Amino acid sequence: NTFLESDGAANDRIKICEDTNGDGKADKFTIFADSLNIPTSMVFANGGVVVSMAPYFVYLKDTDGDDKADVRENIMIGWEKNDTHFGPSNLLYAFDNKIWGVVGSGYNGTTKDGKTLSFRTGVYHVNPDGTGMEFLANTSNNTWGLGLSEDNNVFISTANNTHSAYYSMPAKYAQRALEGSTVL
């Protein structure tokens, strides 16, 4: 089983930088994982790291304490990679114990738990094991920023002059239900 994209050179890596002598400068470098192809974000989860690397989300974990990933598992596939500058990014482990992220291109696939999803630019969240993914809301353009305030407010930003926008709730709850509704 390969983790390399068939059309790309997997030359990227995640490196651990340490300051072993306390002088404020890294002097020890350990390659945690290599043979990655354009990883756009990573977040610590389940004792390891989840990395967005379209078309995959990859789970990496060091199990023997040598600071090198021994476990490498694709936990999700389906992220579009039409243009690398707006792939899945800004992964955050959030207040609901899910990984939140933003995407400019989109997702088109079947999740680990069998849910078929297709969405474009916006914000989503997913369980750290790749299950339970939910698309939350679209944005107006390539979504590049995601932030959480200390009181759990969610903010996004886009590439087209939306420098900061408040995200309040999943779009499905804000949709007007016209069919069969009664006006009081």
Structure in a nutshell:
By secondary structure, the protein is mainly β. It contains one helix and 13 strands, in the order βββββββββββββα.
Task: Note down, in words, how this protein is organized.
This protein is mainly β. It has one helix at residues 171-174; strands at 12-18, 28-36, 41-45, 48-53, 56-61, 71-77, 89-93, 99-110, 116-126, 134-138, 143-148, 154-158, 165-167. The strands form four sheets. A four-stranded antiparallel β-sheet has the order 3-4-5-6, with no helix packed on it. A four-stranded antiparallel β-sheet has the order 7-8-9-10, with no helix packed on it. A hairpin with a 6-residue loop joins β12 (154-158) and β13 (165-167). The longest helix is centred in the C-terminal third of the chain and has 4 residues, at 171-174. The termini are far apart. The model is unreliable at 1-6 (pLDDT under 50).
Taking strands numbered 1, 2, ... along the chain, how are they ordered across the largest sheet?
3-4-5-6
Percent of sequence in beta strands: over 45%
Net shape: globular
Q: Given the helix and strand composition, which structural class is it? A: mainly beta
- Biggest sheet character: 4 strands, antiparallel
Please compute the radius of gyration using only Cα atoms.
18 Å
Averaged pLDDT: 85
Order of helices and strands: EEEEEEEEEEEEEH
* Low-pLDDT stretches: 1-6
Please provide the count of β strands. 13
Helicity level, as a percent range? under 10%
